[in-house]
Design goal:
Helix content of chain A: 55-70%
Largest sheet of chain A: 5 strands, mixed, barrel
Structural class of chain A: alpha+beta
Distance between the termini of chain A: 46 Å
Strand order of the largest sheet of chain A: 4-5-11-7-6
Shape of chain A: globular
Strand content of chain A: 5-15%
Oligomer: homodimer
């Protein structure tokens, strides 16, 4: 079984649902005609299918190898594939042309990210981290820093990392202890230990640009005293080429459940030379530029693992002969029927398909709003910024929770084979599991949503989202073909609105009510967003059918959408009921009663 | 973090909820006074905590090692622990005294099984498989076979396996190809390949008694032509001691996601000597004795992994300092609060606690009905047999699905630490995952429930269950303290009954409707059963409180039960809504539309 990029799905969403050609007034869309996009995604699909996917199992089996000289060897084939990726310009797709990038819109780039991640998530993290570090330097760095670092990071010649976590601090960055001492020459000396640093050391790129959170001597306690530093592995020489080795090493690799092909490093900084990004004590602000980008990227990874796992399960279900259909043999000449005939196997596959297609649409729709943040129309730009704030935690947590569920169901479709390492189901499940955790665990995303994003600007973002949904519903009410989708969305939105009002009333009164409601609220939001996407997709499919297009892809879309309404959306009521019970019982037990 | 056996929970259920001393009229309960049971479980807890639990991570890391001479070495320490287990009589706890067992009721034995499995699931499978093989020989073997094999299997001197699966057949046993040829001397020659044979080869016991499904030459096609054979690794000599080596070998081990400490073998039989158990072509019937026993055991494993994972997550949540409570610092002297103060962390732990406590009660309540099958009161015995048929698939699938969810949440509580192999969360999740698959994948359990168990004897079992629930509800209606539990159970049962009627009407009309509804129906059944258990537990706790017992354990029970009603039970509505949508949309897409 080989991964096949879902290019037809990408093009359907980009062309028929989002109609991205309508945004040609924005600079990044100028060269993004659908013909160009189709050509890029088709080439991209070839690259990931032929170069990255075959290395996925290799990476899992071999893992990365740390040596006592503090070097890290990536799995066989990773270096050659990375070189091909750099040569093909695939690292630069979404980056600013000012630094050598191709400047494609995020909405196109994210489709490519999905493919890379499905084909080889552990590999894709190397350029993925670089892009996050690029975004942070671009957002917070000086012109000199940008000129020195960004072109080499955009091309992929140099890679990047983000160094936040320390043994005593993960979520709570206020506890950071790594120190930065001014050296008097404009640079700082960085000392401390960072853990779980993805791509912290490897043999793929000529230099590694570490972005490190540290505390300047005398800085305020907590998160207000954290600064961000560029700490390169090799100090750039006068020509901007890798020069003297900096005083930092990878002290070892983490043994972990999955993503073995990515080096998860303990990084030790011992008076390493670093340069401040932006101002002292403002490090978290810049790091969060990177974090938000990274959070969307993790949502994409969750979806991408779900897609790859679904494809593997589907191939197995069509191939494996076992038992007979309940309604009579479907493969009478064979010894048994393919297990796809069994309703409960179908249920798992249809669950996956219905969530993946809407999840992908949601991911692309959100990415489009990322692009629209730069619209010259200020109202459009503000709404887009509002949406990005509101929806980033939903994309991150909802798509990863669902992606993991899909990976687990995909293993289940395989039966016993799925538990063996001869089939890819185990790797997808193990790799996917980290997406629920890193870049802010899903519970932290849920708290960000209810505690910060909902209330920002007096609830402007969520109100604007409700208004958009209401308008869409209003436009299609009475359209017989779309009726179930319109009804489903009305119902979902009503429940989400009820939950939102409940939170506004009860979260202020007792903040634990907000915390207690957060995950169910986020899932209710995710369900509503995916129902919203199904109405948009059903509308697009119906329009093409009405125009005489008989592609069975379109009728399958309508069936899959109805399946979502019948079999996924009913979870909404449970989430609403649960969150409205508040924090009282949840918090009632003293610690010693556990 | 070390696993601690939940002895207090076991004793509460056995004494206060099930009052097992009331069954002293049954032979197996004669020696099962609560004092004796408490002594056994307390000693058992010591054994698993001190001997088995410390080997759990060792087994995961080392795995089993196959050598070219077809031997298998178990992980360091397993052999010594197995010897201690045999010496301590822990293998024999639930077995028939006629064969050297201690004859304890299943309801006690299952508590011990839970502890063994929590402490070291991969290890526990060796004696677990032996017990399944013992049950099959006891049910179907001749007196001579019983005399020859059972005493040695009961003591643990010899171990056992079940050999069903072949590469082309897992669920569909009709496809079995392994051949059995009569040798003319009463024995048969067995030839074929079996895969995924747990404990198929190892260094723990002096002999391994394989129970093998095979097809006698000329037997009917499909499941009607399958016979069961005893095929020992060493042929018993005239004294019943291991003699000549039989012609069967372990050809290799499966690489798998978890349970590395258990040897999952490819078994190759090459004219191996075997003896028929029971009659030719009746093999499946006897094998299903073993399967039903094994299925309950797998449900216990799912629960047990959930319990162990929950304990690890709880210890982490009390220890890890990160962030501050939303309602103000709870550990003001420390750098941060323990993460147990965060409502969403609590949500995951309370979810686990509420499901584990009721799941354990359900497991013990079901095991008690296993004992009651042998009641001299025929009405009681028939009801118990009905329940065992009906509830075995629910115990197996529901407890494993929930157990896996708990393992995943336990990893989530750990944050990034959970994804590393330095903490036990990964192993619990990986080990637990197989429980959803083996002994009949959970989808097969669901189909067994709706396709076979519901309809058996005109629905007698489920009607009898409904009547029992109605009676319990009737007895406690108006009891103010129990009102939420009574209301919850009434509501759950009404939904389960509605689903049952829907299935009766629509499953006959189109069997795919039954298949399409099966998993949601099973989950609705599981939710109802656990709500039922919560009413029983709340009643027992309330009675002790009313009698002046101020143990905070009792008030915590009531809080945890209310949490279940508020936060777990609301899923029932979603299951009902989904299953009533039937098979139409689910089955609508042709295979090529996927």
């Amino acid at each position: 079984m080989t991964y096949r990029a879902p290019t037809r799905e990408h093009l359907f969403v980009l062309r028929d649902v989002l109609n991205i050609e309508a945004y040609a007034n924005l600079p990044s869309f100028a060269d993004a005609s659908m013909d160009t996009v189709e050509a890029i995604l088709t080439e991209g699909a070839k690259f990931v299918e032929e170069v990255l996917a075959p290395l996925n199992a290799v990476g899992d089996k071999e893992g990365c190898v740390w040596s006592a000289d503090n070097t890290v060897k990536t799995p066989t084939g990773f270096k050659a594939a990375y070189d091909q990726m750099v040569e093909g310009g695939w690292v630069a797709l979404g980056s600013d042309p000012a630094f050598g990038g191709q400047g494609l819109p995020a909405v196109v780039n994210v489709a490519m990210s999905e493919m890379i991640s499905s084909a080889n998530m552990a590999f894709g993290m190397y350029p993925g981290l670089t892009h996050g570090a690029y975004e942070a330097i671009r957002a917070g760095g000086s012109d000199a820093q940008k000129a020195l670092y960004l072109p080499k990071m955009v091309s992929g010649e140099w890679s990047g990392t983000m160094n936040l976590t320390e043994p005593q601090c993960g979520t709570d960055l206020g506890l950071i202890r790594t120190k930065a001492a001014p050296a008097g020459d404009g640079s700082y000396r960085i000392s401390g230990q960072k853990i779980w640093i993805s791509a912290g050391e490897h043999d793929l790129s000529k230099n590694i640009v570490h972005l490190v959170l540290a505390r300047v001597e005398g800085a305020p306690q907590g998160v207000k005293g954290i600064s961000l530093f560029i700490v390169p592995k090799f100090l750039p020489d006068a020509n901007g080429e890798p020069g003297e080795r900096n005083s930092l090493v990878c002290g070892g690799l983490e043994e972990k459940m999955g993503i073995h092909g990515n080096a998860t490093c303990v990084m030790v900084y011992d008076e390493a030379k670093g340069w401040l990004v932006g101002e002292e004590n403002q490090g978290l602000r810049t790091m969060f530029v990177m974090m938000n980008e990274a959070r969307l990227g993790v949502g994409v990874q969750g979806l991408a693992q779900g897609e790859a796992a679904y494809q593997a399960a589907l191939a197995f279900a069509k191939d494996r002969l076992q038992g007979r259909s309940l309604t009579g043999p479907k493969n009478p000449e064979g010894p048994a029927d393919p297990i796809l005939v069994h309703p409960d196997v179908r249920r798992m596959l249809m669950d996956a398909k219905a969530v993946l297609e809407a999840g992908r649409c949601f991911m692309l729709w959100t990415a489009l709003h990322g692009d629209l943040q730069h619209s010259p129309d200020e109202a459009q730009a503000q709404k887009a910024r509002d949406y990005m704030g509101l929806l980033t935690p939903v994309v991150k947590a909802y798509l990863t929770d669902r992606g993991f569920k899909i990976c687990s169901d995909a293993m289940q479709v395989h039966g016993g084979s799925g538990f063996t390492e001869h089939f890819p189901a185990s790797q997808y499940l193990r790799d996917c599991r980290i997406t629920l955790i890193y870049e802010g665990a899903n519970g932290v995303q849920a708290l960000d949503l209810v505690g910060r994003k909902l209330a920002a600007n007096g609830g402007r973002a969520v109100m604007s989202y409700f208004a958009e949904v209401d308008q869409l519903v209003g436009e299609h009410e009475g359209d017989a073909g779309l009726q179930p989708f319109v009804d489903g969305l009305k119902h979902a939105k009503a429940q989400l609105q009820e939950a939102t009002y409940w939170l506004m009333q009860n979260g202020l009164q007792n903040p634990d009510n907000a915390g207690a409601a957060s995950t169910d609220y986020l899932h209710l939001f995710g369900l509503t967003a995916l129902t919203h996407m199904w109405l948009l997709m059903a509308k697009a499919a119906q329009a093409r059918i009405a125009a005489g297009d008989h592609d069975p892809f379109l009728s399958a879309k309508l069936v899959t959408g109805r399946y979502f309404l019948e079999r996924i959306l009913p979870d909404a009521g449970g989430h609403l009921a649960k969150l409205k019970t508040g924090a009282e019982t949840l918090m009632a037990l003293p610690a010693e009663a556990f």
